Amino acid sequence: MMTIRKDGLQTQKKLLKVAAEVFAEKGYRDTTVAEICQRSGSNVAAINYHFGGKDSLYAAVWKKAFEEALAVYPPEGHLPADAPPAARLRALIHSHLHRILDHGRLGHAGQILLRELSCPTEVIHQVRRDLISPLQKLTRGIIMELLGPQASEQQIGFCEMSVIHQCLAIGFREGKLPAFLPKGRPIAEIIDALADHITRFSLAGIAVVQAKIEAGGNREMKSQI
Amino acid sequence: MMTIRKDGLQTQKKLLKVAAEVFAEKGYRDTTVAEICQRSGSNVAAINYHFGGKDSLYAAVWKKAFEEALAVYPPEGHLPADAPPAARLRALIHSHLHRILDHGRLGHAGQILLRELSCPTEVIHQVRRDLISPLQKLTRGIIMELLGPQASEQQIGFCEMSVIHQCLAIGFREGKLPAFLPKGRPIAEIIDALADHITRFSLAGIAVVQAKIEAGGNREMKSQI
Amino acid sequence: MMTIRKDGLQTQKKLLKVAAEVFAEKGYRDTTVAEICQRSGSNVAAINYHFGGKDSLYAAVWKKAFEEALAVYPPEGHLPADAPPAARLRALIHSHLHRILDHGRLGHAGQILLRELSCPTEVIHQVRRDLISPLQKLTRGIIMELLGPQASEQQIGFCEMSVIHQCLAIGFREGKLPAFLPKGRPIAEIIDALADHITRFSLAGIAVVQAKIEAGGNREMKSQI
Amino acid sequence: MMTIRKDGLQTQKKLLKVAAEVFAEKGYRDTTVAEICQRSGSNVAAINYHFGGKDSLYAAVWKKAFEEALAVYPPEGHLPADAPPAARLRALIHSHLHRILDHGRLGHAGQILLRELSCPTEVIHQVRRDLISPLQKLTRGIIMELLGPQASEQQIGFCEMSVIHQCLAIGFREGKLPAFLPKGRPIAEIIDALADHITRFSLAGIAVVQAKIEAGGNREMKSQI
DNA sequence: AATGAATGAGCCTTCATTCAT
DNA sequence: GATGAATGAAGGCTCATTCAT
Fold first, then answer.
1. Which nucleotide is nearest to D31 (CA to C1')?
2. N or C terminus of chain B with fewer C-beta within 10 Å?
3. Which positions 25-44 on chain A have a beta carbon less than 7 angstroms from any atom of strand F?
4. Average of pLDDT values for B136-148?
5. pTM for the whole thing?
6. Which domains does chain A carry?
7. CA D80 centroid distance within chain
């Protein structure tokens, strides 16, 4: 049977793109290689041929999605490294939200990331460490700056959690935005408003923790460790 | 094979309990009825006999888990309805965390809930609405009290999100607690510490939003709603 | 649990009645004991308890249906044994049709019979012989009378087939009567009309075979046997 | 296990052939895909791959069997359209019988057809209409010619039934020919003899109905139609 | 390089039957 | 006598993967 000999690289790219969509839509387990191939106009064997298997394809999709997300929205925006920590926190949050909500430009990085966080797949554990940890480190650094050198590990950890979780959990409802957000506005505007809120909210939270530290009462649970 | 002919209700309970564990551990898709039955010491057909199928079992597990969680940890603890909103917020957060983290007593309500939020299953959509909405309403009420009557829908929504997401996303990593938390302490103590932090952090965040409202600057994006 | 202790015999009868309905409706294989028991208001184990198994129940249903059919519509009606053969043929045909078409009074003898003829079940082979053979013998006898002593085995067989098949195949369409029959008339009237036609048609057919015999040409295929 | 990678079409054909045999032998419900695949030397998944499921395979088998039957034995044989109706009736009957009895050449068209008529399967209802109706129309046309323009709907219908039922019911006993037929003769010869009988028998039957019409007594049940 | 036919392990479900009560 | 919980064999189907071409 005569078949059109595509570029090979093109097939691979198409596969990767479609796979990102389907994985994001249905999750790893509910996605079938058959569907990906069909939607890509490829053969059922294409995935095994090009990627070696469903697992590897998933890893590839994930890696690519995350890297792209980082490329388009660098963790601290385009701020100079010596910008004030509050500004850098805002940039970080802003970039987080973009990754999670801006599907149009990023494929489905955010959704896949979110899914991974709550339903981790065996295959991805390593990738996860490699890519997420740096981000956490950045956040942590900024928070440490804000809390000052007296902060305990636990206090830093708590604040880090508070900030990151506010960003991550946004994507919970399959990308459907909460009802109280204005419909029909460009996504960038919504992200801006969200980032403003989370930054303001978090800075206040961090400030109150820091105030407590300054007050000298920093001994909570410490004696118990 | 020797089998004890139990009361039937006992088998059903065992099945429900084991199913909760396995579903929480592996998610709906990766859970096999075979494993549940095996771990329960029942026959493969037991699930279909008692529940009608994997789907219905899942729904049953979910419902039970959530109801139990609510029963053991009522949303506002045991506070009187006229307690100050800050105290009620603390109780609410505390109860949330209990539901999510206290596996020992609750089966796996928290994990299952969390999984559902990020990887929703068809079967569960209705239950989801029935059980989660009331909780959101409570949270919302408290936040409205704290922000005052001037607060916009959006401001209320944002604060609600900040609070709830800090609680929900805790359970992300399959129940493994973050490294910075002291190991070996009773879970109740850890939950207390977490609840303290989230409450303090959130009250500060809410306060800063409320301050902004009082300052009269409450016009953000309002014209567009 | 308190249960109403029925007569035992009553349960058995109900079971037999319902089973006849379901078997006739769905056939042996597609009928489940569960459905029969449910429709009978009995326990799943009732069939095994009262009849020993699905097989035996089926046999019992069949036997009863056929016997009832014979009781209500004796093969040759109520004609004296020395009535002219044409009249006895008419009575035979009439009784056949009744058994097959008159569901109201006979349970579903006809449908079950028909099903058995085309989709024979292992269990029933013996019963089949015991009950159907006598009927065939009767038909055969009448036809032999009509054809005269010169008739060959084959000619008798052919005519017998022609007559019986016209009656049996009536029930093909799940009891739905052909469109050309008048709707809304009592079934007895329709059966009368059908019996009239088949009798007239068959007598003519038999006559022409008999004429051929008389003409002396009775050697067809005989040399080949 | 060594497997020959055939053309795919070959496997499909084999599957279709074997399926026809098994379905004819055991009926839809009692046939297992496992058996079909085993007998075909294929994998259990082959049926789903090539046909989509047991249902579709059954439909395919049925369609093919019937079409082949029609192709090999055209309804009116190879008679010119203006042949006398008696000759065309004979050809029609002859072709019917061939379809039902000649397993060797036709797969199992006849048996499957017969089974369908008495134990209709959901899947097949449409196909049934498409393929059987034309045949009935042909038969009807010939009978109308023979009866003349005065014949009532009911008279036509009755005669049609008589003719067709004599042919169809032949196949009742799983293809085992009645005992009175000569054993060991080629099937074609037997079919010829049967066709001769049924034609002669039916022409006589039709003639007597037609005589009744001519005699002017054509009023039976007419007022009720 | 790429295809699509073929595979087999595994899953959920159905169902007649058994058994303790 | 009668129940309903429990069983296990079997069936149809899905799906990632392999293999010959």
1. F11
2. N
3. 31-34, 44
4. 91
5. 0.74
6. 6-57 (1.10.10.60), 66-214 (1.10.357)
7. 22
